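The aim of this short unit is practical: by the end, you should be able to scan a pair of folded records and say something sensible about each. We start with the first protein, listed as its amino acid sequence and then its structure tokens.
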Amino acid sequence: MKKNTTVHEDDSAVNNNFSTTVGALILSLVFLLGVPGNFFIVWSILARIKRRSVTTLLILNLAFADGFIMVLTIFFIIYLAKKKWIFGVAMCKGLFYLCNTNMYASIFLITLMSVHRMVAVLFPQKLSYLVTRKIVRRVIGGMWMLVMVIAIPSLVFRNVIEVSDDETNQKKLVCESNHTQARHVRFQYSLETVSGFILPYAVIITCYVLILKRLRQTKFRRHVRSEKLILAIVVMFGLFWLPYHVINMVEVAAAWYPEDSSTRELLELVHSSCRAVTSALAFISSCANPVLYTFAGKSYIKKNGFAFMAKLFEGTSSEQTENKKSRLMVKNGIRSNDSNNSLPTREQTATPEVS
């Protein structure tokens, strides 16, 4: 694989000392919190929950994806600390490909959670027909195949290149995007932002607008714990990934200007100075979910100890049974006084659960 020797250090994402230092510190914190946190969730679900609901399956996949990518942050910490790439071309391409795959998987799983909540609130009596564990497993499998395909540009346009080090006046290797044409820049980063942020969030916002509209029409207007938890996951993901996608759009904008344009130089300076920090911030979203779950299940910690996470999720195992009961009640003409204007009975209880 040929390496480009004409790139100057100022064009590299690891050229800024402050940015790389802050990025390395953020990733170190993410590694310490994210690895044990996400794998604790995986263990809690696999070892302690026999009947897994739709949302539990989605959370299991989300925790697995986040936990796996957290393990890989050690390579990026070393990269930012040393400000040069020492792991070779294959690792350069593979690690960034896995990062993009995780980005798409996380937002798509969160989108699926939001769609499921919308169906549960708007069509509670039809939920068992529309959303079954078998269908969800197929959808999740298809989603993983999709994210592996749409993340391919990060594999194609990433390479190890040589840059000139201003401090030592020598060459060093960095793992950077290596676009030969401006249209490749516009294609890759526009694809990331549109398919990995704008479109999923449009679906999520639509789902929650419909959910809130339905809640306002019901007699029981209190937001249940599961609604708040999933909404918190959505907000957290958006806050930490937004700066990354803003920098993507800065790079896309720079690609529209001629190479000798002062505007392009300014935009590329902003991009190269901020990329390390915004990428590190994006990783925080992968370690934030265990913290959210801990706060949501804090009432169980004293009573259940390390089993509190399973206790938080175990209420979802009754989801299918209760939906079948609701369906039978409707079929037999049996309705509670509030069944026409309220959420399902399970969601009127005070028991904290994710469903």
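Turning to the second protein, read its sequence before its tokens, just as you did above.
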Amino acid sequence: MLLKRLFLAAAALATATTMAHAEPKLIAIASFGEHPALTETADGFKARMTELGYVEGTDVVYDFQHANFDRSLIPQVLQQVEAKKPALIFAITTGLNQAAVRGITDKSIPIVFGAVVDPVVAGIVPDWEHGSEWSAGAAMLPNFKESLSFLKEVIPGIKKVGTLFNPGEDNDATNIKLINEAAAEAGIEIVAVPVDNQNDLPQRVQSFAGQVDAIFLIQSNIVQTAVPVVAQAAQRIKLPLFNSVYAPDLKDQLAGFHAISYWKNGEHAADIADRILKGEKPADIATYIPQPEDFDKLISVKGLEAVGLTLPEALKDSPWIIK
């Protein structure tokens, strides 16, 4: 009996020693660039991983790489990520995930995607009910029906809404298709102006003068990385500007936001990462689709006043007003 107890004690000690010396899992985070919204996605992911029991430095370590919004640098970033043989890659933005599908050659490394509008159209997953053999994640599919309903409350009588998009981006193509469908249902006309160079943004915004009642910005990389430029141009032509991404530093320049939470997107991606790390196959995991609670409605009184508008009487006590 004593020998049995000694054996069990030794086995327990060996197990504890092995656990104590277990190396933390490496989680690689790869992003298209450093931007407050994309940083929120990564921060939301890490915060949720901590909530799920993955203690940074003990259970997991993170390695962050980005391409500085330069497409030519994406292959290099992915090579560096793959060379470190991470347990999992959290890839942020559509373009980077598309490149990862082609560029990560070690298919034993699972990829979780975030900040992707439509992973099916982008070719990242085969359909909304399944991931690919090595990739699954959380989408940022917009709810333009709610967005336009919000605009109609803030700007009563609104008939035409302008937006900017990059015709070379799959994300943008999906956004334009969806916002036009929602607009037709809402009785609103969308005036979509293409832009493939940030230097052209002021001129493109200027083209909305006298043509639309407001501007609503979709989740377009080329636009979201230059919202201050768009805001200045919109103020010059006295058009209220609304965004699908919340930017606290611009809350006095924009009229409002119907914004999906990038932080929550990161949290939902972490939930999927947890399932994969516990052995579930990416192909068996459906893409997370945003729910109403994943969006925020915000109105800026100062932003409205900057273009000569006032808050409608019906919204004077609205919880949407930015204090």
